[in-house]
Each structure stands twice: as structure tokens, then as C-alpha cells.
Amino acid sequence: MTELWVKNACVIDPIRGINGEIMDIAIRDGRIVESVSNRADVIDAQRCLTLPGGIDSHTHVSGTKVNFGRYMSPEDMRAGRTKRKGKMHVTSGYYVPTTFGNSYRYSAMGYTTLLEGAMAPLEARHTHEEFTATPHQDMMANTLFDGNWAVMDAVREKDIRKTAAVVAWTLKAARGYGIKLTNPGGTEAWGWGEDLTGIHEMVPHFAVTPAEIITSMIRANELLKLPHSVHLHCNNLGKPGNYQTTLETFDIVPDLNSARQTLYATHVQFHAYGGGTWKNISSKAEEITRSVNCKPQIVMDMGQIMFGRTMTMTADGPMEFNLHCLHHNKWSNHDVELETGSGIIPVTYSKKSAVNCIMWAIGLELALLTKNPYQCLLETDNPNGAPFVKYPEIIGLLMSKRYRDEECATLHAETEKRTSLFALERELDWHDIAVMTRAGQAKALGIINQGKGHFGIGAEADIAIYPIRTDSVDPAREYRKVVEGFQKTRYTIKRGRVVSRDGEIIVDGANATFWVDAKVPEDLKMENDPEFIKRFEQFYTVRMSNYPVQDVYLPRGRRIETEVFT
Amino acid sequence: MIEHDVVCPFCGCLCDDLELECEGGKIVKVQNGCALAESTFMTDTRLPSPIRRTESGWEKISYTEAIKETAEILQGADRPLLYGWSSTHGEAQSVGVHIAELIGAVIDNTSTVCHGPSILAIQEVGHPGCTLGQVKNRADVIIYWGCNPVEAHPRHMSRYTTYATGFFVPDAQRDRTVIVVDTRRTDTAGIADEFVQIEHGGDYAVLSALRAIVRGKTSVIPAKVAGVSKEQLIRIAEICKTAKFGAIFFGLGLTMSRGKYKNIRNAIELTDELNRYTKFVISPLRGHGNVYGSNEVFTWMTGYPFAVDFARGIAFYNPGETTAVDILRRGECDAALIVASDPGANFPRDAAAHLAKIPTVIIDPHMNATTALSRIHIPCTAAGIDAAGTAYRMDGVPIRLKKVIDRGYPDDAEILKKIYDRLNGGKGP
Amino acid sequence: MRVILESKVRAKPNLPIEAEAIIPRNFLKGTDLLVYEGNKERTLSELFWIFVEGTAVSPENIEVILKGDTSRIKRVGEYMDTGSIVIERDIGMHCGNFMSGGTIEIRGNADSWLGREMRGGTILCRGNASHYCATGYRGEKKGMQGGKVEVFGNTGDFCAEYLAGGTVHIHGSAGDFPGIEMRGGELIIEGDATRPCGNMKSGSCVILGTVHDMLPTFEKSGQRVLPEWKITADVYKGDVANRGKGTLCVRS
């Protein structure tokens, strides 16, 4: 039995309605309890800002395409190198760090749970191997279904129950957490080098539209009662004028769930462009947020870009190829049979580029114009917009108009006219930030009842103590202190153990992987469906019996079962 | 007893549809596999126990002694080399990296004599590829460049390309066009619809010419490039441009001929160019069953896919400097641990010879040419036969190798963990 | 101030030494520097006999002289910005890495990656340079960006790969693929070259000797007299396979 007592913590726990109370937190055997004995270890938080462990609801840190990004970038690997020290292994990489690099740096920032943004089921085993090598964060994987043949067939047949059954079988085989759709239908078109330009366009050879895929998957998701909602990377990412597609997509989302959103729209900054060409591109953040502000069934994340070099990597193969044609940087592509695609290309966001400046502004606008912070979460689509180590700077910008003004003064001259950022006065407060970096994610991902994102009795003791005294820092003026404060916790505690202290990892990790075992009626199980089996064996290049991820890959798997639907 | 859906660990195809018949702890029959698979599963030349070289020959030693001495050899070295890794599973590869990091060693895998150049090219221009099923289901044009799958990857064409029935290519023989490019008429050239014969070392020039033709700059090209006529070049470019889905596969003919990684780079750039007109992909035909796995494991742990030097505490990568062949040729390393590989047979002689001059330990199920150069040979399980573990197919798809029989050997991951523990004063990785 | 470093005989002479600490500037503070032999840290005095003559108030006036067998010493002159280094015999890999100023003179031969990622300054190699002379690091879009590398002997393969700025002058012959991927700067080869300037995007290359295996994708655009070399040269634009707009001049 191990006991820990954190005293004098200035706690902000939005889920339980606590906002800046000085209190003590008692922990026993990794969970929050009422009280502990006097033999407990003591940490005096000295009235520092104490939040539940950070949760990143969309980050690319593990799996085939992330590793592609690493292996094709030796020039980035040499940028972030650290030596082995104590419990810390060697790390390399700045915008695509090695797995240990990711884990240590996230831990230093107080993050204890991560959702991997994209996992192709055929290559799930690779993602899970890397999860094990990201030892200080609990992990879960968004499972890609956007180009899934069996799904598209069921959608075409308008059979939601069958769609749900395919999803359930695949999620279990991949040990995935939720449904991810990236450029739905577009990734299948990319199998032929094509793309789709609207959500009502037919996917070649499959006779379904992205709109149909999205709405069917939403209904299947809710039928299965999955903890997370459908997680969508909208069609037409990155194209000037694409805000129309985004609004159209938002308009077809019903409100089917009272506990959380019905659609999680990710990195919306990349989907909020007006104009029609790179020359006249503008921000449509106002239109987007106007839509989201009256749709509680939608939650988005920012997809903030920050200036500098980084790597783009998504399942959106055609988009990545377009970037390659535009900038001529080295480009990798990896389409996955019967499932999805991916593309990887390095990019530099520059203040000299009007387009990049507008993109930077849009992310901030989205956060500032969304009324409810639960509906716009802080993310950069790491590393696509920026490496996650930049999150503290984004926090600084959101909390300080002055910081924004200073940055805006250095932007391309066109920016002011094409976005509304310069005029926005709103400054988010500590509570807003706590929502956007943990409480909102916990709610959106459906892990509150797994004990994540709050300090309720019985919750997992994932705690981040930042060197910030909220009573003596004015975030609007002293944004540098805010940025520094969020860069490195004094303590990051995971399941009751101190894992990081002042940026240094002091124990070996033992993370858990959350996955969903969704139940379906016996007669719908795909393992009993002869047509499913036949097509699988004919068109995949692995045998169906070799496809599912074996238990050995999840040494500390946390299986979440759902109720059978009827 | 019949085992179904067994994965063959031999080559990069990782065929996973084999049926093995086992009797009395032995494999007696292999169905669906090629000749290489049969040989892999049924050959029985395992070294029974660890052995150490003596003045007059070899003596048997215990695993404990062997592990102890191996740790001592590595501990004392100023520039130890850990090489091989390609025929074992990811679990062992991970421990290898941990050992290298702990003792400041150089760790390298067989990419160094095989597709290392492909990796270098990818690091310059990226890799426009896909999983093999995309090729099977869609490709109407297949190009084999500088490789001979009929001999080295016997089931590649029947499982993934030429003869495989795909969703969009139901009549494979009729619907697919196969182009073979090589310096000589191989068996694979024998089944090609179009054979392009190139002079030795002429691949780069031909690829440049094809790129220029695809871009519409045909007039610059002379009448013959490296022995290939301009007419044939134009014809090939046209076939590629009008394909619905083209797939290029290449091997050592491209990676090991003069210019090496520049040849691959040029082929990748041709693929990039073709993507502006149609869908085209390119993939290396990886030789060893799990060499791609060692690239993947090394990369997520260190940042680099092979040739990683930990001498300075951080991970440093520089092929030509930190690659095993170069280190051995320069006589730099003073101790070596060889795992699941046979550099004694595959390395240039002057490099392999250095292994005999330093204390070398080999961990491998079979005696091989490297044993003759080593001081200690520790036998272990063979991944995919008597040990389960993860392997990565040539296209990056991870498949779990099965344990089909039990021969009573320790898993090499276990042996390596024990070596690590000794080096680390009793604490695990 | 002159700092003379004479390499000592070593028990394992083939072990590489990494000596990035050997730059003139560092000797302002004394000779208490660290170098690395394989995976072991060593002091400078463990591996060298050290003699210091005179004093200096600024690094511009510091000359470092390396004597003895220095053929396995890597990274000498790394990030050097001023002063001078003279190597009396051969030097190991990565000599003059990231150099931005000052002078390095090698009186023997240089191993691979001489002047890697150089930005400024001058490197003179009296003997031969090996592979990857005056190039960049894997994955980067630019190699050498400024300064001057002059080799009086021959170079190995891939000389001036990814050249983006500065001048590389080879008096002897270059090996295979000199100037490949070049996108700026000037490459001069007085001797022979094989398959020069593949994938060239920009920059200029002059070859006075014989070109072997000229690539088929260079477009001959005429002839020109080059008075500084006293020759007439065929002028090529290329590399056409790569949308290239570089200039390759080969003696007619």
C-alpha cells in the first residue's frame, strides 16, 4: 500500500466545479481517497496551480506513419538529442521525437493520457508496440475507418446495424478506442490517386458519399454506445474555401448523446478557410464558431499552427501530395489496403507567408470565439501544426491580449484584413485553460468514469503541479511566466507515483492502454459472417486469424466493454 | 498435428498462410510455402549448446558462463559493435538497442549490406509507397527493377503482384503488364511482358532519362542511354503514364550497383513525377524476414533505422562512418556481438576478417560462417519456429511470428536481457 | 599563440578519436579540454603531447598545429569561427564541420566529410580528400553554404553533394557524382569527373578534365570561352530531369 498526500494545492478541477481552492489531495494505491494515514509521503504544493493530469485528445506519437516521419528525418533526429540519464533513455528528435522523447517531454508538461490520432487496423500491432515504449502516459488509439471497404459496403446498403458490427469487430481486432474518419471516402479515392471535393460526391467504385459515411458511422457509434464520439478530420482539409465543407458537415450532425458531443471535429483551423485561392484565402473562424456555438453536439479542437519547422503526417494522403507539389519537400505516402491512407511531409510555417499568418490567427480565433471552452480544445494536431512542446506558448497567447498584440505586430501585413484576431479582446482564464487541456478532453473522450480528468474520490491520481502561483501572476501581462510555468511541472504524478520532477523522469513507466470491446448481437458478429470472412481472405494480404492484435501487446490493457444493442 | 496460418520468417514476404504438420516435436511437412520456406522449417542443423573456442577446438559451456563472459567482453570494450538482428523478433531487437545505449556501442543491422541505400534515398526524398494489398487489388503495371523475385522472393508474384487476383484486377494474367529491368536476363525477365536490359551501372542514367521523358523533355535524350534505345524508353514511359496504378519493386541490383542510394533516389523521384499523372508507388523488396522490423524498432527507440553509434551518449547516425562494414574494415571495433545474422558469409572479406581478431560472440540458432570467426557461439530459438514475436513485412505490416514447436532453447530476447542485467549491475532495461 | 598538439602512440591506434574541442577559440582558456576515444572520455593530455608558445588575447591570433598520426582524429575544427589550424599529416573525418571562419590547412590527406555543412572560412587540403568532401548532413536540404574548400589532390565520390553556396575547388580529379543535388555555389574540378551534377537545380560547375558517363539529361546550350581557365567550354543547362537551371561547363 502506497500513500501520498499533496497538501496546499491550488486546485482547479472543472469537472467537479472547483476553481482555485487551496486544498489537500489524498492518494492511496494510485487513486484519490478521502484521507490517508500519517505514514504517507508528503508533497507540499506550496499553493501552486494543481490540475488533473493533462489529456491530449489528438496527437500523432505512435505507429506506422509517425515512425515513417522519424526515419525519413535524420535531420530532425539530431535536433533534439539527449543522453541516457538515470531512468531516462536516450532521446532524439524535435518535431518527431522518439517514443521515449515524446513520453518524457509530455510528462514534463504534466500530461498523463494521450489519444493517438490515427491507427490503421492492419498496422495496429505497430501502434501498440510504440505505446509500450511511451511508458509514462496511458494511451488509446483512434482507429481509422475512412476508407474501410466493409464499412462502405454496409453504409451503401444503409444497414446501420451491420456498420456497427463491422466497427465492433475491427475495434476489437485492433484494440482501438474509437472511430476515426480522415477525409472519409477521400482516402479510398486516393488509392487511385484521386480525391473528393465535396461531401456529397461519390467515392469511386463504392457508390457512397462522405456525408453518408459520416452520418452512418455516427449512428453506428451511438448504437454501440462507444465512450467517445466519431472523431472527424473533415474533407477538403487545407483548401482555400473549405469552410463551406466544414459548415455543411456540421449541419448534418444530429444530437444523439446527452453525456458528450456527437461529433468531435479535429484540427478545425485547417478547415476554416474562406476565399478560393492561396492569394485570397481568409479566415472563416467567425462562421465556424457561430455554427458550433449553437450546436452542443459538436466539440472541436484548434489545430493551432506555430511558426517554425515541423512535420505534417495524416491519413489524408491526397492532401499531403498536394503539399508536396506546392513546396517540393520530401514526401512519403503509405496507403493501407482496404482501410485508409497516409502521407508525410515536412513543412515550415513562416511569418513571411500571408497564408501561414492567417492560419496562425485562425486557430486562436476559434478558441477565443467559442463561448464554451468545453467545445474548443487546445491541440496542434501534433506535429502537424506544431510540436506539442509549444502548447505552453499557445496558453500564453490565449490568456494575454498583450502577447497576441506583440506577435501580431510581427506578422505579414495582410493578416489583419483577413482575420478578426486583432480585434478580439477576450483573454481566457485559468479555468478555461484547465477545461481546454484536460476536463474538456476527459468529457469528450468519455473517460470521466474511467477516473480521468478530475480529482473525485476513486479517480486515478494523475496530477500536475505547475510552478505557477495564480494569486501572484497576472497572465494578461506576465505571459512569459505563464509560458514557462506550463513548460515544466514541479511534479507530475501518475497513478499516485511521482514520475516527473522539475522535468526529470525518476521512475520506469507502467502505462495502461484503453481499448473498447463493443458488444453486438450474436447474429451480427463479423467472425460468423461468411461474406465478411470470404472478402477478407480474398482481398487482404494477411490471414484473418493473424490480423487481430494479440493480448501480449497490451501488458496492461484496460478493456472497456459496452452493452449489447438490440 | 496441423498448424494453420503459420508465418514464414525467412524473407520479407512474410507469407502467413503456411500449413505445417508437426509430429513428435518436429516439423515434418510444409504446405503452401516455397522451397525457401521448406528449407527454413525443416532443416535441422541447430547447435545443441553454447560453445567456446579453445586452443585446440571448441568446448561446451553453460548458458550462464556464456552470458557472463559475453557481458565481460562487452563491458571492457572501447568500441563494441552489436550487429545483425534481421532474423530475430522485435522483442530481442529492443533489448539490443538498450544494451547498445547502456555501454556506448554501435548497433547496426543487415540493412547495411542490403537496403541501407534505399533508406538513405528515402531520407533525401521520402517514400511514396503502400501496403502490398493495394498492389494486389489495383496494380495493372508492375515493374521489377534490379531484382529477381522468382529466385529470391518466390511467392511475391503469386501473393501480391503478377499472378494474384485482386478486387479491381480479377483476371491477373490478362490485366497486368509486367516490366523487368535488369543487366541480364534472369528467370523473372523470362515472364515479363517487356524486358529492359541495362548496361552495368547505367540505372541512374536510365532513370534520369525516363524522368525527363515523363516531363516532356524527350528531345534532350540521346538515341541510346546505357544500352537502352530511346524507343524503348519512350514506350516504357508511356506504359507508366497510362497505367491506372503502377508499382515498382526493386532490389540489390539497384541498391548495390554503383551510385547506390542515388539510384534509388532517382527511382523514387520518377515515382513522384508519375504521381502527377496517375497513381504510382515504389517499394524495396526486403531480403531478410525481419530486417524492416529492426529498422522500425531502432527508429522508434533511437531516431535512426540502422548504423546507430552511442559512443558519445547520444544517438549518432552516419552511414559510411557508423555502419558495421566500415567500422570493421577500419579495424575500429574491439569487441562484437552478432545476433541472428551471418556477416562471416555476407560481408566483404576484409571486414569479416576483423571479427576474428577481436573477441566476437554470436547468438544464433545455427552454426554458420561467422561461428568460425567467433570466440563464443550461443544457440537460441529461431523466431517463427520455436519462438513467437513481432516481425515487420517488407511493406511495414506487422505480423506476429508463431512458436510452432519447442526445442528447449532459450529465447534470444531472454539471453540478451540477462546480458543486459549483468552489464547494468543487476537492474533490467 | 601557437598550440602544438602531437598525438601520442596509443594502445589501440584504430579507435577513432572525436576532438570537436580542438578549435582555436577553446585554447584561450587553456589546454584543459576533453576528447573522446571510442566510448571513453579522455583529457587532451592523455592523447597528445601539448606545447604552447606565446599568448593571445583573442582567438584570431591562435594557431593550432597537429602533429603525429592524426588520421583517426575526427571533428577537428568543428564550429570553428576564427584562428587557424594546421595539420601536418592526415586528418580524420568531419574536419571543419560547420566551420564559419578561420583557416584549416591539411598537409596530408583528409578523410570523409571534409568541411561538412561549412558556412564560411577556408579549408586547404594539400593531399587527397575522401568521400563526401564539402557536403551536408543526411536529410538536410542544403549542404555547404559558404566559405571555400580547396583540395590539391583528388576527392572520392559525392564531392560537394547538395552544395548551396561557397566555392569548392578540386585541383585533381573528383570521383563519382560530384556536385550531385547542387543548388548553388561554385564547383571547379580541374581533373576528371564521373557523372557530374546529377539532379542539379542551380549553381555552377566547371570541369577542365574529362567527363566520364555524362548524364543524358543535360541540355547543351552552346559554347563559351572561360578566360579565367583559358579554355573553351561546352555549356550545359540542367539537370532537365529535375527542372534544373544550373550551369555545367565542360572543356570542349
Radius of gyration of chain A: 22 Å
Biggest sheet strand order of chain C reads 5-1-6-8-9-10-11-12-13-15-19-18-17
Structural class of chain A: alpha/beta
The parts of chain A where pLDDT drops under 50 for at least 5 residues are none
Terminal residue distance of chain C: 49 Å
Total number of strands of chain C:
19
Largest interface: A-B, 59 and 64 residues
In what range is the share of β-strand residues of chain C?
Answer: 25-35%
Q: Percent range for helical residues of chain C?
A: under 10%
The beta-strand count of chain A equals 24
How would you portray this structure in words?
The complex is a heterotrimer of chains A (566), B (429) and C (252). Chain A is of the alpha/beta class and 566 residues long. Chain A is 31% helix and 21% strand. In chain A, the strands form 4 sheets. In chain A, strands 6, 7, 8, 9, 10, 11, 14, 18, 23 and 24 form a 10-stranded parallel beta sheet that branches. In chain A, strand 10 (230-233), helix 9 (243-251) and strand 11 (263-265) form a beta-alpha-beta unit. In chain A, helix 5 packs antiparallel against helix 6 (160-174), helix 6 packs across helix 8 (210-223) and helix 13 (391-399) packs antiparallel against helix 17. In chain B, 36% of the residues lie in helices and 21% in strands. Chain B has 18 helices and 22 strands. Chain B has helices at 35-42, 63-76, 90-103, 116-125, 132-138, 149-152, 156-159, 172-175, 187-190, 203-214, 230-241, 252-255, 261-274, 291-302, 324-329, 343-346, 349-357, 412-423, and strands at 2-6, 18-23, 26-31, 51-53, 58-60, 80-84, 106-109, 128-130, 141-145, 177-182, 194-197, 224-225, 228-229, 245-250, 279-284, 308-309, 316-317, 335-339, 360-363, 376-378, 389-392, 398-401. Chain B starts with a strand and ends in a 6-residue tail after the last helix. By secondary structure, chain C is mainly beta. Chain C has 2 domains: 1-108, no CATH class; 139-252. Helix content of chain C is 2%, strand content 35%. Chain C contains 1 helix and 19 strands. Chain C has a 13-stranded mixed beta sheet. The mean pLDDT of chain C is 97. Chains in contact: A-B, A-C, B-C. The interface between A and B is large, with 59 and 64 residues. Strand 16 of chain A pairs parallel with strand 8 (128-130) of chain B.
